[in-house]
Structure formats: structure tokens, C-alpha cells
Design brief:
Oligomer: single chain
Structural class: mainly alpha
Order of helices and strands: HHHHEEHH
Strand content: under 5%
Largest sheet: 2 strands, antiparallel
Number of domains: 2
Number of helices: 6
Mean pLDDT: 75
Length: about 180
Amino acid sequence: MFVRIFTTVNQFPKTILLVVLALSAFFFVQARDGLFDSQTGRLRINSTVEPFIERDSGAYQQFLDARKAFGSEEVVVIALHNTEKKPVGLEFILTLAHLKSDIETTVPGITKVFSMLDIPQASGECTGKSYFHQMGIGSVCFSVLEKYEQDISCLNSTASSSTPSAFKTLSLSTFDT
């Protein structure tokens, strides 16, 4: 039976060649549309981890939740290493806040920057604000970090204008951020 089909099809080599060329062109167009960006003509690379996560696992749902929260799975993680092994204090948190603002203003192509300072409160007085916010006068949430930064700069300016010159260096280095 297979021999009869093969001999019948083999009698029309030009038709076979035409069908093969038509199928090749069809699959080439389909591949081109899927592999290349239509605006730039550059090769698209899918660098996500989604195809590697089992759909029935809890990890896949966590992946979808993270993508929903952050907007995409294309995330760059920057970690600060505490080489001096000091406890995390106000200086570290202010450094993190300044690093975040520097990344937002200087790195091109960044749409959002999240840090531990931005984790929103799910409930409480300042719902939706970070845990570094407190309820103030008039039911207005204010940033504790900004308040501390202002207090320290106020102390620095007061210390530099009211203390003798021998104590200026000591007090300024104590409150320096």
C-alpha cells in the first residue's frame, strides 16, 4: 500500500517541489512574525521563566501574582551587602532611599523601582502607604524617613551655628547622614 502511494506521488516531482516550497514559505512567514519585532526587525528573545514553571504548582500562582504586582517578569535585583555587619539603622535606610531615587532618575528604561521602603500596608492607619509612614495630625500619613532626615539636618544646622568650633566637628560627624 505504501509503495503504491509513493510511486503515485513520485510521478509528479514538480508538484512535490511546489508543495514543499509553499509549506516552507508559510512556516518561514509564521516564524518571522513570531521571532522578529515588527517595528525594529530585531530578534525577540523570550527570557522569562514562565515556560519552566509547572502550571499546577503554587509557584506558578506566586509567579503570576508577582507579575501582576510588578508589571512584568523582567526584573533586575540590586542587593546591598552589609560588609561591616552593623545593625540596619537610619543611615542604611536613607542610603537605600537615595539609591532608589538615583536609579529612578539616572537609569534609562526603568519604569518602576521597588524597595523594602515601598512595601504597602495591607491594613492599619496608613493603608496603601509603606510601613515607614505614620498617621499625623489631621489624619494625614507622613513619611517617617523624611521627618528623621529633616530633624537631622535641623540638628546639624543648629549644631554648626550655636556650638564653639572645637565641638562643631564632633557634633556634625555624630549626626552626619
